[in-house]
Amino acid sequence: MAENIFYNFLNEKSVFTDKSKISPHYAPDKLPFRDEQIKDLSLWLSPILKKAKPHNIFIYGKVGTGKTTVVRHVISQLEKFGKDQHLPLMTVYLNCRNYQTKYTILVYCVQLFYPEQNFFGYSRSFIYDKFLTYIKENKINFVLVLDEIDKVKEKEIDDLIYTLTRTNDELNGGSVSIICISNNIFFKNNLDSRTKSTLCEQEAVYPPYNADELRAILSQRIDIAFKKGVVRDSAINAAAAIAAKESGDARRAVMLLLRAGEIADLNNLSQVTDKEVYEAKEKVEQEVMKGMLLTLPVQLQLVLYAIAESSLKPKGILAISGIETADSNVLYSGEIYDKYCSLCEKYSEKGVSIRWFREYITELETYGFISTTISGKGVKGNTTLIRLGVDPQGIIELLKPEFES
Known about the structure:
Layout: H1 7-11, H2 35-45, E1 57-61, H3 67-84, E2 89-95, H4 102-113, H5 124-138, E3 141-147, H6 154-166, E4 175-182, H7 193-199, E5 202-206, H8 211-225, H9 233-246, H10 250-266, H11 274-295, H12 298-312, E6 330-332, H13 333-346, H14 354-367, E7 370-374, E8 384-388, H15 392-404
Parallel strand pairs: 1-4, 1-5, 2-3, 3-4
Antiparallel strand pairs: 6-8, 7-8
Helix pairs in contact: 2-3, 4-5, 6-7, 8-9, 8-10, 9-10, 9-11, 10-11, 12-13, 12-14, 12-15
């Protein structure tokens, strides 16, 4: 009988001791360079220790800046403390990519309250009443974490946040607080003024990591994920430099070393050097781009989709100030806005004004998806010219299912 093929993997040599510890999804017990953020979040939640309502909190920042990791770390500590001290406390974490409406979010919570019952199909008012009743009767402090809050359907965001933050007006025992997390720094600006005032009792912006911080983060992971001495300093420096230059994204730096280690194993190498990191760079960039695309807020996705579709059939421009020759890959911002509006109509999304459209263009450039230049006089007056910096067909293939599902 032939030997099972998986014995080959069991017996092969590897640079890793525990590959899961260099995964972007692994959350270490100690979070470097986020002490201030942990302290602030703990302070804002501390009223629970006296059975009082904690603050509503809004946290935002770029991908890979530790937002979710910090929140889950603090919430985990709070849960352990609450259990030890017998506090009337309950926390729930939801990623709004999977729960995009007020109804599905409340049903999920109520299902946790009453696990023996099935609540799908009941009316919104019934579900909300059951939500309130449980908190009243049990007098619990309920903390709901809504990650990627910008993924909630736009027409429901204000209603969802306002309802949850005003729930306490109907409670004479217990409380409801929410922590909203977003990659979109413009998210709160689109909220209704009443909603914004109740959500943003406390808010924090998480800054990107610099190269030195990324090196320290990687060194911490290497100690627990790789065999001693197999990762050269050149590999650490390369991964940190690449991630710092791109966006200060810790997940990108971690993924670079993970893929570099896999390349070393594949080639039976005993060490991981900068050569393997640079070899892993293209693959990681594709993975990161896909992850970034799918976590972008819907409006940013629509703007990028409009740019990608227009890039497949560009009209081109004449030679102008700042561009030496005619360029068929450069697009007019006005035409992109028209395309964006038609996509909004096609997919039943509410379009934003030209002012907000310009903000989204700026944000897409910050993420590195596009580059822009001002035309100067001579081409439709004074307009912004846009050039897509990634494969348009790849963008369309990734985003189209998001809108047509």
